[in-house]
Q: What sequence folds into this?
């Protein structure tokens, strides 16, 4: 595939997780990548994590690109505006913009009438407002050149319920931001898409399960579907493929999954696997249905959650109708 030499990217939220994986894989293809976030070697993480943007930038460079670490609080418009002014002065253009500020540490799995409103609104500020601010100040650079790719990172490639009130609002808003920006940029040469990873083996997820990337399989019994998990580099390689696709404009306004993009672009994860979360869900739900329904509380919880999520998705209509019957 074509490389990204000479292309300039900003990855907002590149400190860890999908953001780090995306930045690194853009670097693997030769891009110059501005890696932004709040945690540096001299500024502690607000959530107590050890990862820094300098580490990400160094990994970008070690993979063949040019990594540039820039501390930015994307909640602060002046800091975001200064970031893109720096990109303009140093690089003269912006080809790729990744919005991957997630704020999952602020997510609360509570019913709306029991939720901590302050915490929920903080989640929206972190994971939605920052995306809007970043697009506001990044898009003018792309408009000047008449081309560019904007990627909104979300969770889920559908409009179904995400299992919790504020989490649902945030992740569906990320998809809607991509759709609305695509409408606004339709005649201006800029492509905007939303992309979701599957079950991500982020640094935080590995820590939660008490494993490392080297022995992650030891945690398979701890979480349904962890056997089908993916590294953050997987979605990164998928986005790098989007950035080199000459027909990517045809996808503008849509939401895409790492597993479907991997099939389309023939991509493997860095461990040589090609995880496919969508097929895993369909296969597991089909097994539950064929067995006459959930066999235990864990299966019932899992199947009910996915029924709430996918029951209105046309592509899953037949499977959801069958699942609904065994759950009723």
A:
């Amino acid at each position: 595939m074509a490389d990204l030499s000479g292309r300039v990217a900003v990855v907002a939220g590149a400190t860890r997780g999908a953001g780090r994986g995306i930045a690194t894989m853009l670097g693997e293809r030769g891009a110059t990548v501005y890696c932004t976030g709040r945690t540096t070697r001299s500024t502690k993480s607000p959530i107590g994590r050890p990862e820094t943007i300098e580490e990400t930038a160094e990994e970008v460079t070690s993979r063949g690109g040019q990594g540039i670490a820039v501390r930015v609080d994307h909640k602060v418009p002046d800091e975001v505006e200064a970031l893109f002014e720096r990109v303009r002065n140093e690089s003269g253009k912006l080809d790729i913009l990744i919005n991957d500020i997630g704020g999952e540490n602020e997510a609360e799995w509570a019913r709306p009438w029991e939720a901590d409103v302050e915490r929920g609104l903080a989640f929206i500020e972190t994971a939605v407002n920052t995306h809007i601010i970043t697009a506001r100040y990044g898009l003018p650079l792309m408009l000047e050149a008449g081309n560019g790719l904007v990627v909104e990172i979300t969770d889920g490639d559908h409009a179904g319920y995400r299992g919790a009130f504020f989490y649902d609002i945030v992740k569906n808003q990320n998809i809607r931001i991509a759709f609305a920006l695509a409408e606004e940029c339709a005649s201006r040469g800029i492509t905007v898409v939303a992309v979701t990873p599957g079950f991500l083996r982020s640094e935080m997820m590995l820590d939660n399960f008490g494993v490392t990337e080297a022995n992650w399989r030891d945690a398979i019994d701890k979480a349904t579907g962890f056997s089908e998990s993916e590294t953050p580099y997987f979605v990164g390689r998928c986005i790098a493929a989007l950035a080199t696709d000459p027909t990517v404009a045809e996808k503008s306004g849509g939401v895409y999954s790492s597993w479907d993009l991997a099939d389309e672009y023939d991509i493997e994860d860095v461990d040589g696997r090609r995880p496919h979360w969508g097929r895993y869900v369909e296969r597991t739900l089909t097994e539950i249905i064929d067995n006459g329904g959930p066999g235990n509380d864990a299966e019932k919880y899992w199947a009910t959650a996915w029924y709430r999520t996918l029951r209105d998705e046309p592509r899953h209509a037949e499977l959801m109708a069958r699942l609904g019957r065994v759950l009723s």
Observations:
- The first strand starts at residue 8 and ends at 12.
- The mean pLDDT is 95.
